[in-house]
Amino acid sequence: MSRVIIDGNEAAASASYRLNELCSIYPITPSSTMAELADEWASLGRANVYGTVPTVIEMQSEGGAAGALHGALQGGALSTTFTASQGLLLMIPNMYKIAGELTSMVLNVAARSLAAQGLSIYGDHQDVMAVRQTGFAMLNSSSVQEAHDMAAISQLATLRSRVPFVHFFDGFRTSHEENSVELLTDDELRALVPEDLVRAHRRRALSPEHPYIRGTAQNPDTYFQGRESANSYYDATPGIVTEAMAAFAEIAGRDYHLVDYYGAADAERVILIMGSGAHTVRSTVEHLVAKGEKVGVVQLRLYRPLPTEDLLAAIPSTAKVVAVLDRTKEPGAGGEPLFLDVAAALGEAHAAGRREHLPLLVGGRYGLSSKEFTPAMVVGVYAELAKAAPRPRFTVGINDDVTMLSLDYDPSIDIEDPATLRAVFYGLGSDGTVGANKNSVKIIGAIEDTYAQGYYVYDSKKSGSRTVSHLRFGPKPIEAPYLVSKAGFIGVHHWSILERMDVLEFARPGTILLINTPHSDEDTFAQLPEPMQAKIIALGIELWAIDANTVARKAGMGRRTNTVLQTCFFAISQVLPRAAAIDAVKATIRKTYAKKGADVVAKNEAAVDASVEHLHKLAVPVGTSGAKPMIPPVPSSAPQFVRDVTASMLLGTGDQLPVSAMPVDGTYPSGTTKYEKRNISDFVATWDSESCIQCGNCAFVCPHAVLRAKYYTAATLDGAPDSFQSAPLNAAGFPGSRYTLQVYAEDCTGCGLCTEACPVKPDGGASTRRAINVVPLPDKTAEIENVKFFESIPVNRRSRVDFANVRGTQFLEPLFEFSGACSGCGETPYLKLLTQLFGGRATVANATGCSSIYGGNLPTTPWSSNKYGRGPAWSNSLFEDNAEFGLGLRLAADLHTTNARKRLEQLRAEVGNETVDAILDAPQMYESELSQQRARVEALKVQLDSMSGPGVEDLRSVADHLLRRSVWIVGGDGWAYDIGSAGVDHVLASGRNVNILVLDTEVYSNTGGQASKSTPMGAVAKFAAGGKLTNKKDMALQATAYGNVYVARVAMGADPQQTLKAFREAEAYDGPSLILAYSHCIAHGIDMRKGLDQQYAAVASGHWPLMRYNPVLRESGKNPFLLDSPRPRMRLRDYHAKELRFRMLADSDPEAAEHLLELGQEQVNRRWAEYEEMATRGAERFAAVAKG
Amino acid sequence: MGFMETTYLGLQLRNPLVASAGPLTQTVDQVKKLAGTGVGAIVMHSMFAERLRRDAAHDADLEDSYAESFAEATSYFPTPLLEPDPARNYLSLVERSAAAIPIPLIASLNAADVGSWTTYAKQLADAGASALECNIYFVPGDVSLTGAEVEARHLEIVAAVTSVVQIPVAVKMSPYFSSTGNFALQLIEAGAYGLVLFNRFLQPKVLVSKMAVVSGLDLSTPADAHVPRTWIATLRNQTHASLAATSGVDTVGDVVAYLLAGADVVMTTSALVRHGAGYAEQLITGLSEWMASRGFKSVNDFRGKLAVPLDADANAYARAGYVSALENAQETYGSLA
């Protein structure tokens, strides 16, 4: 056995991979890592314990993965998969089949919440509880170590029992926690699961050598009996699991049981629980029993088949009250599932006379979506149980002020071992804090008799995200599956964080506080917010400071402060002797940075030495000074909901929001990013008004909508701040008008795409200078005033703007703004354009993925509205169903439009012929027509207000639908090419007027870069570590085959005008449209500032030929296939050379890279020839469109 | 020895035309195509070790900069199947190319420090290169550096590289030394099996239309052959080491001129880039025809015929050349006074 520091996903995957022959996989958080590791190990040729390298195959969805799994099992392969949440739900149909056929397998689940009122990627048991009825046995792990152990035990048990197993552990809390783990060796695993069981599994396979059929259709005469026929297998399973656990104990020395009891032998108050929470309760029980309390905990490991007798035996006969804690929620049920199971078991036993005393049974919910479950809460539950009449149903960990179900508890209770060092670090995603902490955990955890734990909390933004690392180090194994409190060490790695949130939330008297300060030693304390100063004084906190940014910069490490701050932690935390710690850090540096070369190693080592030199302990004054307040998360002018609810989430105090603060149905106000001035970059765009030619290119490509243009009369400038920039409007027909391009500096991420898009090279200055440049602007005060003034200038009237060209679009108000997407994101400019063109009448169905996260992840969301209160209505259903979901929105809109037109016709006499005809006959193609129709509808609504009658009421409820609604179906390539492919195809074939926008990054970006069917040949991605071997699917060509689908392939960085044209044509087309939009991405491994150049290269190399297919042209006898980009004028090699995803293969397998590149180039040539041929055909050679 | 055969760095070549380091060796197919033109040997484009390392560091940064910052994706790339090695691509190309062609493949290396020179030299030898050309491209932009220091650096590299590899090592040197001939001999003394004359410094150009400085590399022209040819003629009878001529080869006449001066092989990149790889075939045929027309039975029959004789007063020879050049110039342009 070997001791390592790994997370729960790796612990489980390590056992499961080595005991299986096949993994059919699909990425879903938080289980993706297990699949990624399996794929990686298989790519490296790592054999399982039986000497076979497992086959790993990525499928198009979890449904597909389950289907392949079912087939592989029927073929006799030892097969497994890894999933969570909605992914597990998609496997349910196959799970019934697999169980019904008594097929051995283990399905590993990092248990996660389900999408209900909102999606959550975090952990609870809602997903696994939704499969408890499938016939799978269910074994759960409560720690990282157990994730390894139970994966192995369940494998043995399934092969012996023939009952398939779900092995689950808590998503994030266990799947992502790093802890010390003893891994079984291959020999130990082989001894545990001997090969004769494998061969028995194989013998049950389908084979033409001894044919039979499985999967028959059965009739009323026999189905029922058949369903009962496997009862004895389920009856035997608990015993088999017990035996498996005993066999495991013999090999590994760790002893588990189906049900374990901890606590006082004569306990009167008992908690029954599964999962990681069991550890928390166990530690708390130990603490309470030591104080003489009669409490205990029953930990259930095998949930299905429910080991009733073991369960009953584990509950002490002295128990007066038992609280069953469920980490799930079943609205409307008599109780949560575990509670009901226990109630039935106890009740039955008592009624049958097998149990004399029936304890009072209560049910509680805890920990949904990784909500903290702490010893303090456990104490709160036991306190409730001590009451004469405990609440029969309760929640713990939240404040339910509506149905009053939540328990009170004292959050200050601390039961942790004082010998354990607890540390908390606040960092930003880009600074390497988490990576350094993971190193620290590994360094310390590798020392004999020392244990380490790491858990990392991220906010939901993809740029400028805040990370909080929770680390524990100690002489005993660390079993504390909850966040650190009362930390002995707190590191604040960015000054901006302490200005905005209480970084001393987890402090205790005497905490060592390390601050990365831009101020001098003398000034640092005075510059801290006053509440923080007061806390430092009150708690006697030991304050240390270093200007890590300067130290890192001088050491040649740019903005990566991780090495500097990690060194400081080791230098002052006393977790290890200082000299040994520094040596260990340097050793890690040599290992970590070896791939970057000797220079980088040397730079980091120099930074270590410089860190110690520049680290100072500061004297803490007796009183506060400066009276500097915390920076409020939102302005006082924000709407009340934003001030009360959103602001709390931004401050990191969302846990304290009561139930009453929450919308009951998941409906939230849109457009809240504008209140959150994140100030994530000191480098922001600045406009050179003198050089600018006002072309609008910069505003067009800005991913964050921080560049806004307006034109106005000169008189408007009265009262403008001195720093407000203005230039004469460069357009004919507007004499005397002025123009301003305003940078929203507090929202700018400094990505630099604007500079790259700018065609102006002003005389003089650096050759890289443009009319808009990203420059340091640490003090944004002037720009804040400028923005304020700019917003007082009216938005230009749409009817006065020619947005048939890029230049005109800059004057259209974006209704998608300041998203938390990656700095320089390649997707968001397309969404912004969509809202500028159609936002006031658009409904958006958004597939799960990057766009649903930066588009819809709380606290703040970017989809906004104009001054009339109109804007895109946005919703996310699921990942797989988005096309269908969007079609539903279209169908509903069409239904309402038909109804509205019918009602209007019926009310012709009252409303008046002129109005009715004008509305019903109105063309609604162009903006001017739409604007007139909107005015007519508004007037109609006013008129209806003075009328009455059922027809009037009905018309009023649907009158808005008299204006053509624009339905957009948006998502990434993982959705469109893979999981949602069938739906996209069906919706395109429906002929309905929907617009499908595929933000094509050629990879699953949100889950970390797994290959999709859009991934180009030769690109390295997760699940394609050896480079993708097949060509990218040509969805455009597939869609053109229908004949009635408008299709466009666009790349804003190559031809923004073509992009604009395609969006407008797609929307105007009265039928299905498909736009494939090239979206550069961090997963391509590029300098994001050069994203537009890469778009250009993709087009110029022929990888991404721009085209449009317009059925309207076919109808008028013209060739509908328009090839919009010139012949490839760049080798595919040159496009590939600039992206790490392609270079990676050349670095690891040059021969394969060269081969795939050659094939790729051939494919480009072949496809181009095909496109050229299509572009020059006669119209009659394309499918005609049926007249509707 | 056959009609056209020659020896370079101890390697038997089918003819003295060598395709030198340039853009035509990026893939195995390109190398095979070059070999198919009939050239005697191929020198790979240079492996710039420092640049490979810098690129690798940049790639590692690209990977790291977005890692560990978002709950759903703590990384965006798979763990590479092999530990990243910035040199692997080049080494693999050398290995596969060397195995794919029937003629010697000479690897070319440029590194920054002695440690890198020896590390990569060994790897290139292991990859199957028949010989190694040290492309010591060293521009002492630091004006505090003395000539002696520059020379010492060169000699140190040559000594270090030749001490770790068994294959022959050539040095591609620059002409800019106070006493180029003497220093050339010092390099040979330090272990170089041959010299490649000369490396051309890439000199930045001023783009007037943009008022900007751009880096640029022009293909060499026959005028560029004068300096190397002079030095080859001077050195030919001073050493038994191999001498390779490079720069300014465009016609058969240029090839012949170099051989007459004493070159063992004549290298060209510019002509092949300008006219296409197939042009090598024309040069070889042309050389063969010229030899036949003159009745030469082997290259050795005329190699070095115009070299400075060993017993000549080299200074006088050079002065004489200078004087005759002035006389020629006067004839062409009139009085230079």
Assigned CATH superfamily of the largest domain in chain A:
Thiamin diphosphate (ThDP)-binding fold, Pyr/PP domains
Strand content of chain A: 15-25%
Give the helix level of chain A as a range of percent. 25-40%
Mean pLDDT of chain A: 96
Biggest β-sheet: strands ordered side by side in the sheet of chain A:
1-8-17-18-16-19-20-21-22
State the CATH class of the largest domain in chain A.
Answer: Alpha Beta
Mean pLDDT of chain B: 89
Largest beta-sheet details of chain A: 9 strands, mixed
Distance between the termini of chain A: 71 Å
Short note summarizing the structure:
With 1188 residues, chain A is an alpha/beta fold.
List the helices and strands and how they pair.
The complex is a heterodimer of chains A (1188) and B (337).
Chain A: E1 2-7, H1 8-18, E2 22-25, H2 32-43, E3 55-58, H3 62-74, E4 79-83, H4 85-100, E5 106-111, H5 126-129, E6 137-140, H6 144-161, E7 165-170, E8 178-183, H7 186-192, H8 195-203, H9 223-228, H10 231-252, E9 259-263, E10 269-273, H11 277-290, E11 295-300, E12 302-304, H12 308-314, E13 321-326, H13 337-351, E14 360-366, H14 375-385, E15 393-396, E16 421-428, H15 433-445, E17 451-458, E18 466-474, E19 487-492, H16 495-498, E20 507-516, H17 521-527, H18 530-539, E21 542-546, H19 548-554, H20 562-573, H21 578-592, H22 598-614, E22 616-618, H23 640-651, E23 683-687, H24 697-701, E24 707-713, E25 727-728, E26 737-743, H25 753-757, E27 772-776, H26 781-792, H27 806-809, H28 828-838, E28 842-846, H29 850-856, E29 873-875, H30 882-906, H31 908-911, H32 913-920, H33 927-945, H34 950-958, E30 966-972, H35 973-979, H36 981-989, E31 995-1000, H37 1035-1040, E32 1046-1050, H38 1056-1068, E33 1073-1078, H39 1091-1100, E34 1107-1109, H40 1111-1115, E35 1121-1123, H41 1132-1136, H42 1140-1148, H43 1150-1175
Parallel strand pairs in A: 2-3, 2-4, 4-5, 5-7, 6-7, 10-11, 10-13, 13-14, 14-15, 16-19, 19-20, 20-21, 28-29, 28-30, 30-31, 31-33, 32-33
Antiparallel strand pairs in A: 1-8, 6-12, 8-17, 9-11, 16-18, 17-18, 21-22, 23-27, 24-26, 25-26, 32-34, 34-35
Helix pairs in contact in A: 1-2, 1-6, 3-4, 6-10, 11-14, 12-13, 15-20, 19-22, 20-21, 20-22, 21-22, 28-38, 30-34, 30-36, 35-36, 42-43
Chain B: E1 6-8, E2 11-13, E3 17-19, H1 28-36, E4 41-43, E5 47-48, H2 49-64, H3 88-100, E6 105-110, H4 114-126, E7 131-135, H5 147-164, E8 169-173, H6 180-190, E9 194-197, E10 205-207, E11 212-214, H7 226-235, E12 242-246, H8 252-261, E13 265-268, H9 270-275, H10 279-294, H11 314-333
Parallel strand pairs in B: 3-4, 3-13, 4-6, 5-6, 6-7, 7-8, 8-9, 9-12, 12-13
Antiparallel strand pairs in B: 1-2, 10-11
Helix pairs in contact in B: 1-3, 4-5, 5-6, 7-8, 8-10
